[in-house]
Design goal:
The chain has about 550 residues and is of the alpha/beta class. The protein has helices spanning about 5-15, 30-35, 45-60, 75, 80-85, 110-120, 130-145, 180-195, 205-210, 210-220, 250-260, 275, 310-325, 330-340, 360-370, 385-395, 415-420, 435-440, 445-450, 465-475, 490-495, 510-515, and strands at about 20, 40-45, 65-70, 90-95, 120-125, 150, 200, 225-230, 240-245, 265, 285-290, 305-310, 380, 400-405, 430-435, 455-460, 500-505, 525-530. Helix 3 runs parallel beside helix 5 and helix 10 (about 210-220) runs parallel beside helix 13 (about 310-325). The radius of gyration is 24 Å and the shape is globular. The mean pLDDT is about 95.
């Protein structure tokens, strides 16, 4: 067998069923070989889309997402999406390759240096007989290091006779950390146990660790309020002391609880500038910070009691120690006050609708959409000013059903990320939330969703401008028109691409999404018209 056949077979043996890619000389042979062997090759429009789709696929499937591009500029085109995957700790294999070994070849490029600069791992196929061993190593690193790895298969090797190969070895996931260090645990429990108004905060890491029950038990023992970061949202939904999102998007009742809390115990949460509101929300409070990755502790917010440990195991260890100490229901006054403040409270009722004659308040739109969509759904969000409506009000049944393509702060990757999520085969409808600028930046990739006939709902929050810049220009005394765009009619564009489309200027017009969703045989674009002058959040 030749090298390209061996690679195709080895990918399949590793459980890879889908490869997102853009074809060129470097991958011209192994991609059709993979497809003819029963795999699914998804041709994309731009290389960044391939990596972002692999990213969305990985986040929602729990497996490794695979992207394939040719050499030179094809690889450099992936960089923004690759850094997004690195920052979001996504499991991505990006296969590329050196061009022919001719010094003057115009695609010559130092793949290893740039992959490393992006924060990704780098591996290469060293010879025809090491294809499987080199792929095994790359896959193992992806799983163990929780980051993308770039695999360089030089084009000069692809048609060589492969010879005998090492057997495929499936990657082994790293074991969870052992019980947290006793001294660190004692300090953390000392702070939490002496608090009079504690709060337990869970992030994405707590959701991944399946820590919900252990954290609720810890909160019940200590009388703590419960909260999450954006990426942990809805983890504690239904609990009487769940205040929802902690940070700049907290609702009024949550804000009051956060202000009163004297100790925050954070599990698997980054405590970044938005969660911490630039540090303001933790000022005057003791902070316990538990994370499986010690390098994340204190990155944004100083911790009084740092604990290196898995969120669930650490919470379980704390519960055991509290049980041994006879602590079953501390701080009843605080616990009852929090529950009382939240009883009957509906955050949506606090929204002062600022819809106009032909525009919709983004919050009102998301509240309406939340009601018409099925509860079991995946939500993939881009980033932008519209997040003030999407993140708090478009809910999910499980925090792992929600993700944000915003680890690197680049707009536009959410569309491709949602396409990848829709290819992950979860059986749940996928909702993409993206601004008009981000959508137009990667408009061509919408055709990939059309070609794949994906029942994907793409909600474009369209204020005809780069919304944050619109606000900032006005704040600095400049004409905000510099940030405005007279886009073509988005529904017309979608229809021309053979998709279905709606233009929404009234909240009730979103009800049509719920009617159309069960019978979708391709993407539905929902162009929600917003007023750029309705500013709902400061930047």
């Amino acid at each position: 067998m030749k090298v390209f056949h061996v690679l195709a077979d080895a990918l399949a043996a590793h459980g890879v069923d889908t490869v997102f890619g853009l074809m060129g000389n470097a991958n011209l042979l192994y991609l059709p070989a993979f497809a003819e062997g029963g795999g699914r090759f998804v041709p994309v429009v731009h290389e960044a889309g391939a990596v972002a789709m692999a990213d969305g696929y990985a986040r929602m499937s729990g497996g490794v997402g695979v992207a394939s591009v040719t050499h030179g500029p094809a690889f450099t085109n992936t960089l923004t999406a690759l850094v997004e995957g690195v920052r979001s700790r996504s499991r991505i294999l990006l296969i590329t390759g050196d061009p022919p070994p001719v010094p003057t070849h115009f695609h010559q490029f130092d793949i290893a240096t740039v992959a490393t600069a992006a924060g990704a791992g780098y591996e290469r196929v060293y010879g025809p007989s090491s294809v499987v061993a080199d792929l095994n190593r790359a896959m193992q690193r992806i799983v163990a290091e929780r980051r993308p790895v770039v695999l360089n298969l030089p084009i000069a090797l692809t048609q060589a006779e492969a010879g005998e190969q090492t057997p495929v070895a499936l990657p082994v996931a790293p074991a969870s950390l052992a019980a947290p260090e006793a001294g660190a645990l004692d300090v953390a429990l000392g702070l939490l146990g002496s608090a009079r108004r504690p709060l337990v905060l869970a992030g994405h890491g707590a959701a991944l660790a399946e820590a919900r029950d252990a954290l609720i038990q810890l909160a019940d023992r200590t009388g703590a309020a419960l909260a999450t970061t954006v990426l942990g949202k809805e983890l504690f939904a239904g609990h009487p002391r769940d205040i929802g999102i902690f940070g700049s998007l907290a609702h009024d009742a949550a804000g009051a609880v956060i202000a009163e809390a004297d100790c925050v115990a954070a599990f698997g949460a980054g405590l970044n500038m938005w969660t911490a509101l630039n540090g303001d929300l933790f000022r005057g409070k003791k902070v316990v910070h538990v994370d499986a990755d010690p390098t994340q502790i204190g990155s944004y917010t100083p911790a009084d009691a740092p604990v290196a440990g898995d969120a669930r195991r650490t919470a379980e260890a704390m519960n055991t120690l509290l049980e041994q100490a006879g602590v079953t229901a501390a701080n009843p006054t605080w616990s009852q006050r929090v529950a009382g403040r939240l009883a009957g409270y509906v955050p949506e009722d606090d929204v002062e609708d600022r819809s106009g004659p032909d525009t919709v308040d983004i919050r009102t739109a998301m509240i309406r959409l939340d009601r018409v969509l099925p509860a079991e759904r995946l939500v993939v969000s881009d980033i932008g000013r519209f997040d003030v409506g999407v993140w708090p009000y478009l809910k999910v049944a499980d925090p792992l059903h929600f993700t944000v393509m915003g680890g690197f702060g680049s707009i536009g990757l959410g569309l491709a990320g949602a396409i990848g999520a829709a290819m992950a085969g979860t059986g749940r409808p996928v909702i993409a939330a993206i601004g008009d600028g981000g959508f137009m930046m990667h408009l061509s990739e919408f055709t990939t969703a059309v070609r794949q006939r994906l029942p994907l709902v793409v909600v474009v929050l369209n204020d005809g401008a780069y919304g944050a810049e619109h606000y900032k220009l006005r704040h600095h005394g400049y004409d905000p028109a510099y940030s405005a765009f007279a886009w073509p009619d988005l529904a017309g564009l979608a229809t021309a691409m053979d998709a279905r489309a709606l233009t929404v200027r009234k909240a009730e017009e979103l009800d049509a999404v719920g009617d159309l969703l069960p019978d979708l045989d391709g993407p539905l674009l929902v162009d929600v018209r917003l007023d750029p002058d309705v500013n709902l959040v400061r930047y």
